[in-house]
Design brief:
Length: about 450
């Protein structure tokens, strides 16, 4: 049985070698389809991996606790001239003292403020923050320095890129004094331009970091205070309303991403115990990772479908060639049947020829697909040498990542295509009438 099988394989290979160009072109379709599956999935995995790394950098291990204005519970609350709500410094202490698995907790307070220098003004977001705020939000210093522990309580300020340009369009702001409200603050630093973050999935608000101004949290508390009054209306109908808020946000970073959900639940329990009104929101950016994972899955399915169509076209090409081969070899089939070959022998011979074609194309496609990394880097290098600005920045950071499942899937599909599209020509050959086949010219 085994000897007969190898004899059939040998006969099938010799039959294919008679028409080398035809066999090569037939296998080429499978080669392209197989390598396309691996290449596309590798590119998709590379893009997805890069996106997930960026999300991790944005803070997938963070739990963000925000102050939010509560719904008016009563007419008295609605008409109150000063509204007191939001996160407390006591909440920050309770979180630090009661949750053991956190790496750090960073409080901050922000409010809109007008900054002035002579006749130039800038409506900025004044952020009272700790020293860790720079690293937390991936800000970079363009000039001067960032806030340090020795600045706590002092009137120093770091300007964001756009804020600095509005106040100092042609000058170096470091060391200059500007008006923040009714007091002078000394500029000690300026941050680089930073791309605004987009609102994603309802979890993270959009934020333009280029219109900020940063002062120590202790300074904001001592110089500005928790209570901020606003003028409403004008003339005789002018009124003042105020908001009394201690902290705008507490960012809690945990040691392990698996602890994010549990930590968020503990924080919610703590806040619920000490807040009568729902004047806070707990946000888990880990949702972004889940969203990226869903996007990657959909992207991979799309790529596999596209590459699968390529394999399907290659399979149809092989079936077409095998049907033509059956017609050309009708007399040979008749001779074999006359010499005692059974229909299963004929089916086996033609199926083996088809599988050899698809397996050969599939294996070479896999080898070419596994070389996606070196080939991609070489092509990227060549294009960059010819035209340095031709490729977008994302391509320079992209690194293909081969997925084992794509290799197995593409090879499995190529073999499956060979069997499925080889059955019909093989059956047609096996069921030829031997006498008519012998008369065929």
């Amino acid at each position: 049985m085994i000897a007969q099988f190898f004899q059939t394989v040998d006969l099938g290979i010799k039959s294919l070698l008679v028409q080398k160009l035809r066999a090569g072109l037939a296998a080429l379709g499978i080669f392209i389809g197989t390598s396309t599956v691996i290449w596309l999935v590798a590119m998709g995995e590379g893009v997805s991996y890069r996106a997930q790394q960026q999300i991790l950098e944005l803070g997938a291990k963070n739990v963000i606790v925000r102050t939010k204005e509560p719904n008016e519970g009563s007419e008295e609350d609605a008409n109150a001239r000063v509204k007191t709500y939001g996160l407390l410094r006591a909440d920050y202490r309770r979180i630090v003292e009661n949750i053991p698995n956190i790496r750090r907790a960073i409080p901050m307070r922000e409010l809109k403020f007008e900054l002035r220098l002579d006749d130039r003004t800038a409506d900025a977001k004044l952020v009272g923050c700790a020293e860790e705020y720079l690293e937390l939000n991936r800000l970079q210093i363009a000039r001067g320095r960032w806030l340090s522990p020795r600045d706590r309580g002092k009137k120093v300020i770091v300007l964001a890129n756009e804020t600095a340009k509005r106040l100092f369009p042609y000058e170096n702001p470091i060391g200059r004094a500007i008006w923040v409200g009714s007091e002078f603050y000394t500029v000690v630093g300026q941050t680089k331009d930073r791309t605004a973050s987009a609102a994603i999935g309802g979890s993270l608000d959009s934020r333009d970091y280029n219109l900020d101004a940063y002062i120590p949290l202790k300074t904001l508390r001592q110089r500005v205070g928790d209570l901020v009054m606003k003028r409403v209306g004008g003339g005789q109908g002018m009124n003042f309303t105020g908001e009394d808020v201690e902290l705008s946000q507490i960012t809690v970073e945990v040691n392990n991403i698996d602890e994010v959900d549990e930590t968020a639940q503990i924080i919610e329990t703590l806040l619920r115990k000490y807040h009568e009104k729902e004047d806070y929101a707990v946000v888990v950016p880990r949702e972004l990772l889940r969203q990226a994972e869903r996007t990657r899955t959909m992207f991979n399915v799309l790529l596999v479908v596209i590459a699968g169509i390529s394999l399907l076209v290659g399979g149809i090409g092989i079936m077409n060639i095998m049907l033509a081969t059956v017609t050309e070899r009708t007399r040979e089939i008749g001779v074999r049947r006359a010499l005692g070959a059974t229909r299963s022998d004929i089916i086996g011979q033609f199926l083996i020829e088809t599988v050899v074609l698809t397996a050969g194309g599939g294996l070479t496609g896999v080898l070419f697909g596994l070389a996606v990394g070196p080939i991609f880097r070489f092509l990227k290098k060549v294009v960059t040498m010819v035209s340095p600005d031709a490729l977008p920045p994302i391509v320079h950071t992209l690194e293909p990542r081969i997925a084992l499942w794509s290799v197995l899937l593409s090879l499995g599909i190529s073999l499956g295509v060979g069997i499925v599209f080889g059955v019909y020509p093989a059956r047609k050959a096996a069921y030829l009438d031997p006498i008519e086949a012998l008369r065929h010219e």
